[in-house]
């Protein structure tokens, strides 16, 4: 798929099918790193546009406040199969700091994310869903 009128959905599907999209599709984890390199929110949006990305714009920009597990997915429709079970716990590892663990148990297997808690970690003892998805 290489026409200039691709939708974000078509672009993502093309990339997943190993076809060539018209430009790089949305990549959620990339935005956090890009945003940290920008001086302000306007620069962040301009940087996304300059890279030809499907732009993520948070209106209004939100601080990391935990409302539920998918609050910070910014309006994307997210739900879990009722058979999915989610557990979170903390393992203490002495001088190495705590290890935050989140595990999703599904009918077809498990997904587990482990994050070392540092002083900069903004989520307390919680591992947000976007961290678990890439672990």
What report would you give on this structure?
There is one protein chain. The protein is of the alpha+beta class. The protein has 2 domains: 8-50, no CATH class; 78-134, no CATH class. 25% of the residues lie in helices and 17% in strands. It contains 4 helices and 3 strands; from the N terminus they run αααβββα. The two termini are 29 Å apart.
Task: Please give the alpha-carbon distance between the first and last residues.
Answer: 29 Å
Query: What fraction of the residues are assigned to beta strands by DSSP?
Result: 15-25%
Element order: H for helix, E for strand:
HHHEEEH
Rg, alpha carbons: 17 Å
What global shape is seen? flat
Number of helices: 4
Low-confidence stretches: none
Helix proportion range = 25-40%
Q: Please identify the structural class as seen in this structure.
A: alpha+beta
Strand order of the largest sheet: 1-2-3
Outline of this structure?
With 135 residues, the protein is an alpha+beta fold.
List the helices and strands and how they pair.
Blueprint: H1 8-16, H2 28-36, H3 41-50, E1 85-91, E2 99-106, E3 109-116, H4 129-134
Antiparallel strand pairs: 1-2, 2-3
């Amino acid at each position: 798929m290489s026409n200039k009128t691709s939708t974000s959905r078509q672009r993502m599907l093309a990339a997943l099918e190993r076809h060539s999209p018209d430009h790089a599709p949305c990549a959620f984890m990339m935005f956090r790193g890009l945003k940290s390199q920008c001086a302000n929110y306007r620069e962040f949006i301009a940087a996304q546009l300059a890279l030809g990305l499907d732009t993520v714009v948070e209106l209004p920009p939100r601080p990391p406040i935990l409302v539920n597990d998918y609050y910070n997915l910014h309006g994307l429709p997210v739900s879990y199969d009722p058979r999915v079970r989610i557990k979170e716990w903390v393992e203490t590892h002495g001088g190495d700091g705590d290890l935050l663990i989140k595990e999703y148990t599904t009918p077809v297997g498990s997904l587990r994310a482990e994050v070392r808690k540092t002083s900069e970690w903004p989520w307390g003892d919680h591992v947000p869903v976007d961290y678990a998805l890439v672990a």
